[in-house]
Amino acid sequence: MVEDLLKNNNLKVTKQRVCVLKSIIELEDNASIHNIVSSVDIDKSTVYRIINTLITNNVIEKDINYDNLDYYKLKSNHKHYIKCVKCKKISTLDSCPFDNVDVGDFEVINHSLKIEGICKDCKES
To answer: Same domain for 8 and 56?
Structure first.
């Protein structure tokens, strides 16, 4: 699957690209640059270059930024998140709050949403 994503976007399949892309997929909602670098045996500057290449070629996109950390996801995975301001836990919302919203004469091609709150565990403690 990972190799196909690279090939379908006219990118050369390399061990390092496959490794970084697999890491992003496996980390799911926690694919920050820090977590990606920690999960692969590739130097940080190479990981940054690979991520930039994957973004430029529409394989992945920058998803959200919490506490000055960028998170990444596959381009086709449309998700929204909520972050606990106390414990920093990030959870995925089950649906997009913007589905079926009338925006007049505009065609929505992209949007982002930053939601913060207090999770159940922190609220109870």
So the answer is: yes
Q: What is the mean pLDDT of each run of 10 residues along the chain (125 residues)?
A: 88 96 90 94 96 92 80 78 87 76 79 84 90
Cα 64 to Cα 75: distance, rounded to the nearest angstrom = 13
CATH assignment at residue 68: 1.10.10.10
- Say if CB 52 and CB 80 are below 8 A apart: no
Residue 94: its pLDDT value, please? Answer: 76
Q: Distance between CA 27 and CA 29 in Å, rounded?
A: 6
Q: What is the pLDDT of residue 36?
A: 96
User: Does one domain contain both 61 and 88?
Assistant: no
Question: Beta-strand (E) ranges in the chain?
Answer: 60-66, 69-74, 81-84, 90-92, 115-117
